[in-house]
Description:
Blueprint: H1 14-19, E1 24-32, E2 38-46, H2 56-66, H3 69-87, E3 92-97, H4 99-107, H5 109-118, E4 126-130, H6 139-150, E5 155-161, H7 168-174, E6 178-181, H8 183-186, H9 193-209, E7 212-215, H10 221-230, E8 234-235, H11 253-259, H12 281-288, E9 294-296, H13 301-310, E10 316-321, E11 324-330, H14 331-338, H15 343-347, E12 362-364, H16 369-377, H17 382-386, E13 388-392, E14 395-400, H18 402-419, H19 429-441, E15 446-454, H20 456-463, H21 465-482, E16 489-494, E17 497-502, H22 507-522, H23 528-533, E18 535-539, E19 545-549, E20 552-560, H24 565-568, H25 571-585, E21 592-595, H26 597-605
Parallel strand pairs: 2-3, 3-4, 4-5, 5-6, 6-7, 7-8, 9-10, 12-13, 20-21
Antiparallel strand pairs: 1-2, 1-8, 10-11, 13-14, 15-17, 15-20, 16-17, 18-19
Pfam family, one: GGDEF
Protein name: Diguanylate cyclase/phosphodiesterase
Domain GGDEF: 444-597
Amino acid sequence: MQPRSSPRPAAPRIEELIARRELSAVFQPIVAFENGAILGYEGLIRGPAGTELEAPFALFSQALAEGCTIALERAAARTCIEAFARLAIDGKLFLNFSAGAIRQLAAAREDTLALLRDYGIDPQRIVIELTEQSAIPDVAGFAPVIASLRRTGAQFALDDYGTANASMNLWVRLQPDVVKIDRFFIHDIASDPLKFEAVRAMQHFANASGAQLVAEGIENEADLIVVRDMGIGYGQGFFFAPPHPLPARKVTDNARDALRAAHIAVFPETTRAVSSTSPSGGMASEKMLVRAPALPRHATNNNVLDLFNRLPDLHAVAVVESGEPVALINRRSFMDRYALPYHRELFGKKPCMQFANASPVMIEKSMTVEQMARLLASDDQRYLADGFVITENGKYAGLGTGESLVRAVTEVRLEAARYANPLTFLPGNIPISSHIARLLDNKAGFHACYVDLNHFKPFNDQYGYWQGDEVLKLAAAVLADACEPTRDFLGHVGGDDFLILFQSDDWYERVLRAIPLFNEGAQRFYAPADRLAGGIHGEDRRGNHTFFGFVTMAIGCVHVEPASGATLYTSEQIATVAALAKRRAKHAISGFVLIDPEESAALLQGQIEAAPFDA
């Protein structure tokens, strides 16, 4: 018979833990990215070691159940202040409080100041963090509470910004000195473009409001380099140090090396797919909009004729009822019908709906260009002749023509291609130039490798664009695998031209792996007979009958040294010299050519023009 186990002792009440002073403090450093100095430490509380209340979540959950959360917060603050003073730590002390605890703190301001004086801590070294635990029903009434605490010399911070109750409303109303970005937005920011954009928006507002930003939850070098290069000032997380009763007085060598890393981040925004949509669907519709009068449903054909005669450039007229379009009358078809004998006498006084298209193509002003583009591929092609109706919230706004629709879709897609290639979704010319400029501004050394495919045009001519696109996607995949995404930038210049901006130390080995990998993979797109023959027959650019070997990869490279980049080169010049190296590589047996810095400088001093991607 198994002995009956003893019942587990009940967890002590929070008030008992406070009375017996069984709480302990741990501290996590907050690090300045500029020089690696420690700005201060966040004080955190722990329950008795080895018990179920050791973790802060369990501790505060128990306090909530017992109705003594604020008492625990005040005890935690006192514990952190005592330990901070005892350790004689330099820098600021960040203390967490809920809104209710902050109100009590302000009400007992003199007692708080006395406590700090007893421990020899200047109030100016204290940063009060408002946690996200509870909403503040009266934010306007809470502002004077914060102002009262600020008069002591303490600073105010918003904690875990971007989640729960830490909102833009609080930022605007309370004007914090420090905003701590929640770890959710920082974790994996190096590979998540949406998190990157969210943090960049916070950064813009911080610059406008004068607040300092602290990136919480930094756990790896890649995320650190991204937030560092964004211009955020401070960071906190396990990459620097975990919370500890005896915190480090300086950052580790690994963290310092990461902060001083010469390479710059590849921002995730530059590697995402960009949809072929207008920044605002309404902007595209507005450009197509023809503001034209409409006729009511009860109008006659004579009214339509009079309108067309009065406005000779009007291609169509809309029929509306209660402000909503119900039909469209095309000018050409209407006038051709009226040119027939006796049609005006027979039909002039009849309702205009008789010759109207009762189901016209309609485009809402808010529609994206991608949605409009579906019309171009649809079976219903009436819009090409009739035009279409543009509405705003379902009400008639004006007309558009098929020609303007084609032009709008084409323009937006061309503009989108400057930012991201629509086939490979790799960054286009504008992000490429932007990243080169960032490299030069930061004096980061790198290798610019211009990639081209030999014999791609004859392959494309013989096998068709669909197969050609598959070869381009293979090239993009091979090159992407050759890059370390946090260090190396891959862009698609256009057609079969790519550009890699390598910061990886082993860039050369990566290039040498990529070329044969692509060359072997490309052969699978050939028919068996062409594979046996070693290529295809076709015509060269002069129309001469020629035999072309398999599609192969050529890579030309220029090395930009760290110390000289910002003074000797521009992004256009670097691209030009890399393109020259590419042209040489197309004739090299290995498929690779490197132009050394000395020759690059000489070429640039010769004022080489015609940058390969300045569109």
